[in-house]
Amino acid sequence: YGFINTCLKSLVVEKYGEETWENLRLQAGVQDSFLTFEVYKDEITMQLVDKACKILGVPADMVLREFGEYFFEFCKRSGYDHMLRTLGGNLYEFIENLDALHSYLSLSYQEMNAPSFRVEKNEDGSMHLHYYSDRRGLCHIVPGIIGAAALDFFNIEISMEIVNQTEEEERTGKKEHIVFLVTQNPVFSCKERSKFSSLPQYPADSEKQTDKQLNKEDLEKAKNAIRDRGNCACPVKKSHWKTIRGIITLGKGKLLRGFDPVYPKSLWIDTKTFCNGLPFHLVFDKELKVKQAGVSIQKIVPGLQTMGICLDQYFSIVHPEVPFTISSIQKFINSQFVFQTRREMMPESWKQRPMLELRGQMMWMESLQCMLYLCSPLLRTLHELEERQMHIADIAPHDVTRDLILLNQQRLAEMELSNQLERKKEELRILSKHLEEEKKKTEALLYAMLPQHVANQLKEGKQVEAGEFKECTILFSDVVTFTNICAQCEPIQIVLMLNSMYLRFDRLTTVHDVYKVETIGDAYMVVGGVPVPVPTHAERVANFALGMIIAAKGVQNPVSGNPIQIRVGIHTGPVLAGVVGEKMPRYCLFGDTVNIASRMESHGVPSKIHLSSSAYQCLKYKNFEMTERGEIEVKGKGKMHTYFLIRNKTATENEIMGRP
Predict the structure, then answer these.
(1) What is the 3-state secondary structure (H, E, C) of 563-609?
(2) How many Å is the Cα radius of gyration of the chain?
(3) Are the C-beta atoms of residues 303 and 314 closer than 8 Å to each other?
(4) Overall domain count for the chain
(5) Residues 391 and 472 grouped into a single domain
(6) What's the CA gap between 102 and 115, in Å, rounded?
(7) Per the database entry, which stretches of residues form a coiled coil (predicted)?
(8) Structural domain of residue 379, as residue ranges?
C-alpha cells in the first residue's frame, strides 16, 4: 500500500532532505507521492530501497533496519499508537499478537499481504522469533520495528541476530523463513552505564560497525553492583500485574503471587445449548474427522451434518499457509486460523456464491485428543454478508463480528471518502505544479522581451515611467549586401541564415551581460548600462562586438557559400528609455545617441567595429587595441572623428566567446 512508500519518503526527506528524495525517486523512476489506500507494486518499494543504498552509500541491512525503526514511529504518528500499545503486556505477548493485528487491518486494507510471526520462549529468557514473508530480502526491517517497540513500550533494549534462514518446507506457500534469536541486553545502573559507554570502540565486522566490548570481569562487577545498589538503578517500567502483585495482600500479610482458576467438576451446559450458543465452532480429531459442529456452520456447509467426515474435504487453510494436518496446526496454534469453504463441495446452486471464510483460534484438548476451532465468519461489509445469502441473525448475539461488520462498513465508507480526498489533493498538487511550470515559461518569455523589473511592473498593472540614463553604450550591426542576398534567395533561406546568426548573438548577450533591444530585418541592436546602470557598459559592448565578428564567420552566405560579413557601429552617450504601446509593448531607447550609433554602423566597414569619439574615450585606457580612422562625413551630423576597435589585449578568443 501507499502507506509504506509514503513512510519511506518521509524518512528520506526528514533525515536527508528534499533534494535527496528527489534524486532518489528520479533514479528509481517512481512518482513523487503515494496515495495511502492505493495498492502499488512491490517492485517500487524494492527499487527505492536499492537506490537509497547506492545514493547514501549504506548497506541494505542498515537501510532496512533504520526504515523499520522509523516505520514504528511513523505508525504511531499516523494514529496506530494506542492500538499497538494494547497488543500485549510484554514483548512476548506483543509479538504473539502481531498476526491478530494484521488480521484486523486486513478488514480495511483488503489487498494487504502482511508477514507472519511465531514466537517461542527459551529457558534462558531469550526468544526465537520466526518470520515468514512472501517478500524476500526485507527481513532486516524486523529488528528495527521490534527493537523500537521494545524500547518504547516496555523500556527494554534487545538484540536480534539471525540464527537460521531457509525456505519454509512445512508451509504450502514457498515463503522466506527467518529465525531471529531475541535476547534482552543487561540493564546497568546509571553510573555503570556511563562507565561502559566511555570504553574504546573497535571495528566489529566487515561493515565497519562498532559495538561496545565488555569483558566478563566488568560484566560480573556490573551485576554485583546492581544487586548491592538496587535503589540507584535506572527505573524499569513494570507491567500493571507486577505492580498489583506488589501491593495487594491477602490475610496475614501473604502476597498474592499468582492466579489459580477454579473449574467445575462437570460441564453445566448441554450439547444443544453449546452448539446453538457457539454457532460457529468445530471439533475434530487427529485424523481430521469432525466430531462436533455449531448450528450456523452446519447451515452454511451442509456436509458437516454427517459426523465423521474429514474436515479437509470441505475446508482449506488460508492462513497460516500450512498443510492441513494436526501437527502443523499444533505448531502454529497461537496464530489465528482462517478456513475457506471448498467450492466443489458446495451444493450446485451455491457454487456461484463467493466462498465463506472463517477466522478463529485453535485449542488442543489433551484429554479428548481433539482440536477445538472457535471461529466467526470473516466478513468485512454488509455486501459480503448478502453475497453469501447470510443475515446478521446467523451470527450469535454475543459475537462481536456483528458490530465489526457494521463498524467496518462505516470505516470503509470513511476510507473511500478519504481516498477520494487524497486523490483530489494529489490532482490539485499536480495541477499546481504544472501551473507553476507554465508560469515560469511565461515569465521566461516575458523577461526575454522586456527587462525583468519592467515586466514585473506591467504584471502588477503599474504604469512604467520612462527613465533617463546619463551614459550608456549602444551597438548596431547589419549584414553586408543583405538586399542582394534577399533578391537571390528563397525566403526560407534568409530566415535560416538570420536565425543561425541571431542565436549566436543572443548567446553572447548572456556571456557579456548586455541588453538586446530589438532586431529589425538584418539589424541587431544592443545596449550596455540600460536598464541597469553599470560603469563597465562600454567594455561589455566592445567585447560583445568582438564576439559578433568572430560568430559571424560561422554563418554561411546562402548565395556565395562563404561566411557572411557584418558591419558594427558603437556610440556612447545619454538616452531616455521606456515602454511604448499597450499591445505588444516594447522597451525602447530614445535620444540622439541612438541616431549616432546607427550612423556609426551605416558608415562602417565590413567586418570592422566602428567607434565614435565618445566610445573611444571610454575604452581608451581599458586594454583595448584601437586605430584611428580619421574624419568622415556623417549624414545629418557633418564631420566626425571616428576609430576602429581591433581587439582586447588581455582576453583570449575563448573568453570573448564564452567557451570553457
Answers:
(1) ECCEEEEEEEEEEEEEEECCCCCEEEEECHHHHHHHHHHHCCCCCCE
(2) 42
(3) yes
(4) 2
(5) no
(6) 8
(7) 407-445
(8) 271-399
